[in-house]
Structure formats: C-alpha cells, structure tokens
Amino acid sequence: MIRKIAQFAATAMVGAALFSVPAAARDLRIATEGAYPPFNSKNAKGELVGFDVDLAKAICAHMKAKCTLVAQDWDGIIPGLLAKKYDLIVASMSITEERKKKVAFSTPYYSNYLQFVAKKGSGFKPTAEGIKGKTLGAQRATVSSQYLEDNYRKVAKIKVYDKQTAAWLDLKAGRVDAILSDLLPSYDWVEKNKGFEMAGGQISNEDKIGIAARKEDTALLDKVNAAILALRKNGTYAKINAKYFPFDIY
Fold it and tell me: What is the pTM of this model?
C-alpha cells in the first residue's frame, strides 16, 4: 500500500509538472495582425507573410519548437494573449509602459520612429501652423494615434483606423491630408506608391519593438531572448532584414 501511495504521489507530481511546463516546451501558437506590411500581411493565397512572420519562424526553429501562426485583429491582440488563445505576439508591437502593465516583453527586435506621409507637392508640414485645419490619420490603439491625440487634437481632425492598410487607402483617396505611422512601414509604402513622400522628417520619439508574452511565462521569454541574440549572431536576422529593407533595422 505504501508503495502504491508513493507511486501515485510520484505520478501526480509528474502530471503536475507536465501541466506547468512553460510554453517554450510545448507546441506554440503565435499571433500576428496580418494587416501591417511589410511586417505582417496576407499574400494572395491567404498565407501570413512578412518580417514578423519570418522572424517568428526563425525563432521557433532555433528553439526547436513546433509553432502555428494565427492572424488576430489589432484591437483584440493583447486580450487574446491574456485569454491564452496563443502564447506569443509577434506583431511589431511597441514596448510601452502602459502595455507592460498587462504583458511582458522580450528584448527589442527592431527600433522605430514615427513618420508622417503625405501626397507629393502638398506642402504638408508637421508644425502647429502647417497642421491647423488638416485631417490626420493613424491606426487605432498605436503609438502613432496616441501621439496625434496628445499633440494635435486641438488644431486638427484626427481619424483612426482598425487597420493600417485602411489608413493608407484613405490617404490615396485624399480623405486625409497625412498619415502618421511607424517609419519602416511608411518607408515600404512610399517605395510602392511614388505619388507620396515622407513629410517633415522623423519624429524624435524612438521606441523599441518587442515580442509580447504573458507575465508568468518567464521561461518562454528567456528562450525567445536567447533566440533573438543567436539569430543576430549567426546571420539569420540579417538575411531576413535584407529581404525587406536595404538597411539594418535592429
């Protein structure tokens, strides 16, 4: 009887250990938005593609983890993580103090500035006088939209969009005078839309982009951080970078 009790206790301990295994040791689900090119979007086949997607796959390969990538609308991406619909968010998410109250972040995997984009020849200038009476757009619940609210709400009309792609469409249609977005997606979009230009120079509020996880998944984040460092050292990051940009975005 004593042996059986001991065996039962040992089995229970193993079961509990397996149940509490950090996400890094299990199959992983990774969320991205799928509407933020060139970092994450869907191709003609409906497949997730982009810098974030390639980096997530490389991180999984380094960790020897089986990963599934899923698309999630931006507004629900943190709630979905907290509800355990997936284990990580790799979606060009800025590391902010407000978000750190809810989730934990990896070390940064690229750097960012904000940038206005406007139609060529429009004379758009991001000054108090130049913006007065203009209509400015940004994606909802982003650093860009918060910057517009904090700095230009009293002098300009602010429009926010569920997806960055919708903001670009309104700019092309002339429904907004300028869009404020991250520098790198702006660069990519202007390269493909020659009738538009970067306007006014980079806004000097550099921020860092990280991978988000639930706060309790410290072991998983440790493995993610080790993977990011390894990919930088072994040249994998540089190869992914070169696929999308002619300069190092790290």
Answer: 0.85
